[in-house]
Amino acid sequence: MHDLGSISDWMLPTSRPELGIAVLATLVFAGFARWLRGVSPSGAVAGAVVCFLLYMSTGGRAVVALISVFALTWMATRFGHSRKQKLGTAEKDGGRRASQVLANLGVATIAAVLYAIYGNPAFLLATAAALSEAAADTVSSEIGQAVGSNPHLITNWKVVPVGTNGGITLVGTMAGVIAAVIVSAVFSITGLVSWKWSGIAVGSAIVGMIADSFLGAWLERRRILNNDLVNLLGTLVAATVAMVVGWNFISGPR
User: Fold this and answer.
1) How far apart are CA 39 and CA 108, in angstroms?
2) What percent of the residues of the chain are helix, what percent strand, and what percent coil, each to the nearest 5?
3) Cα dihedral 42, 45, 51, 56 sign
């Protein structure tokens, strides 16, 4: 089996000191996210659960990747805030709720737990892809609303009002791609995923971001799915693509 990165034994907390560090990192992350009003109280609790499970499953370096996702989405959400307020598309002041946090980070967390259980590196690649997609989707939407103009509906390319579900802009899409590259790069810089395979995480994240837009235009606009479910499915698509590629081309024959 080909390994994705150098996951050393110390990364999986088994002793009391390591467990204490995991708890401390979780509390600091959740508290800081709440202090910045990036999340609501319920969102902080959900974020704490995600942070703790990521740490326990893949080690402290996964928390660095999680922080990169939060930083990118927080900055993108606040960028051009006055314009978004005028358009009525600005994020609510209370921050993201638990349902929003889990919709964006739940798939990545499950993939990380599966990696800890089965040890197959394809699950770790799926974690990277899901977190990269979560960042890409939010950043593309927020930047597109802040500075983009004349968004086009992804299903028929008609011009739609800013903030329309499934509406995309060139600047927003490019910002999303950059966000995916950054998060995937963090996975490689910290040694979780080798640079050789980071492109798979980026490509899978982009596929998930496009799928999210299609689902938004196709099902969310018809109120068949809500935004949380669309976001969840977008990360699931990204994780699935990465896992399939990883399972077949990286893990190798058993």
Assistant:
1) 18
2) 75, 5, 25
3) negative
d(CA 206, CA 125): 14
Could you list the mean pLDDT of each consecutive 10-residue stretch along the chain, which spans 254 residues?
A: 41 63 90 93 96 92 94 93 77 86 97 93 95 97 88 94 92 97 97 93 98 96 95 98 86 47
Distance CA 89, CA 73 (A): 15
Q: Which two tokens stand for residue 203?
A: 């490509």
Q: How many helices (H) and strands (E) does the chain have?
A: 9, 2
* DSSP for residue 218: I
Q: Does pTM surpass 0.85?
A: yes
DSSP state letter for 92: P
How far is CA 177 from its chain centroid?
Answer: 12
